[in-house]
UniProtKB/TrEMBL annotation:
Gene3D superfamilies, per database record: Ribonuclease Z/Hydroxyacylglutathione hydrolase-like (3.60.15.10)
Name used for this protein in its record: Metallo-beta-lactamase domain-containing protein
CDD domains, A to Z: metallo-hydrolase-like_MBL-fold
Transmembrane feature ranges: none
Organism the protein comes from: Piromyces finnis
InterPro entries: Metallo-B-lactamas, RibonucZ/Hydroxyglut_hydro
Higher taxonomy: Eukaryota, Fungi, Fungi incertae sedis, Chytridiomycota, Chytridiomycota incertae sedis
Domain Metallo-beta-lactamase: 74-262
One protein family per Pfam: Lactamase_B_2
Length: 307
């Protein structure tokens, strides 16, 4: 049976990423999170210097699917501005290679600007990794991609002699499940701010009992019901204060308590207002979470979640 075997977080930060260059060059050196992001951190599992939890790239998640033939398929959620840098680190460290499909949450820069970098997988003659990469996205995101990367959608618009990504776009119905590499993926439409006086729709995704929502300020009731029953949920939490397009920490925790997940959940999409160790301590001491019997941790780049 096809099943989700592992989720790997390639990025857990906000659109600008962490550190912020202006924080690093501030003569008063006030931003604790950005300054700490420059220090080495020892991985608790094997003693190697593998990550610094305060260094965060754009939110992105790699779904590792166990296929019927026992092979592993890699389905990537989002290719943002830091996609290239993230794959250089985590694909090489974890010995990942192929990208069997990409699914996109929305058309913002931190979700799509790495599409051009996918060409590394589809060029190189006999040495290329694969012929093409399927892309799954909403019609609204397709419209943005067509405007931002016309040459990726229509290769006759490519100029010069440069190689381009070989991509095959598949527009999905955001209100219907779809299948990628034999596994069902359920779109989770959520509100990510307002555009032209209407909610701006961003997609999360549910695969088996895992739900991933990286950019969200409101979960509609119909989507809440689709998420309900997930054992592991990764949910947006930008900062302590409220924001017009992202959950705050408390808002995210309240949603998780109401969703009643059975296993450890994680916060993602954190800005530099949230320092990893401090927030981790606060979550461990949170009485509302204890009373609800729910464990929530702070995600970090490179985190592997087995299923």
């Amino acid at each position: 049976m096809v099943k989700l075997e592992e989720a790997v977080l390639l990025g857990t930060g906000t659109s600008g990423g962490i550190p912020n260059t202006c924080c690093l060059t501030d003569p008063e050196r006030k931003c604790k999170t950005c300054l700490l992001s420059q220090e080495f951190t020892v991985h608790e599992d094997d003693g190697k210097v593998w990550y610094n939890p305060n260094k965060r790239r754009n939110t992105s998640c790699l779904l590792r699917i166990r296929a019927d033939d026992n092979s592993i398929k890699n389905i990537l959620i989002d290719t943002g501005k830091t996609f290239y840098e993230g794959t250089m680190e985590w694909f090489s460290k974890y010995n990942f290679r192929r990208i069997d499909a990409v699914i996109l949450t929305h058309g913002h820069a931190d979700a799509i600007l790495g599409l051009d970098d996918l060409r590394q997988w589809t060029i190189g003659g006999e040495n290329k990794v694969q012929e093409y990469i399927p892309i799954y996205l909403s019609q609204e995101t397709m419209d943005v991609v067509s405007h931002s990367f016309p040459y990726l959608v229509n290769k006759t618009l490519a100029s010069g002699g440069g190689d381009i990504s070989q991509l095959r776009f598949n527009v999905i119905d955001i209100n219907q499940p779809f299948y990628v590499e034999g596994i069902e993926i359920i779109p989770l439409p959520v509100h990510h701010g307002v555009f032209k006086d209407q909610p701006f729709i961003c997609l999360g995704f549910r695969v088996d009992n895992f739900s991933y929502i990286s950019d969200c300020v409101k979960i509609p009731e119909t989507t809440f019901n689709l998420i309900k029953g997930s054992s592991v949920i990764i949910l947006d939490a930008l900062r302590y204060n409220s924001h017009k397009s992202h959950f705050s920490v408390d808002e995210s925790l309240n949603e998780l308590i109401n969703l009643e997940p059975s296993n450890t959940c994680y916060l993602t999409g954190m800005a530099h207002y949230l320092e990893h160790e401090q927030l981790s301590k606060e979550l461990a001491e949170n009485t509302k979470l204890k009373d609800a019997g729910i464990t929530v941790k702070v995600a970090y780049d490179g985190l592997r979640i087995p299923f």
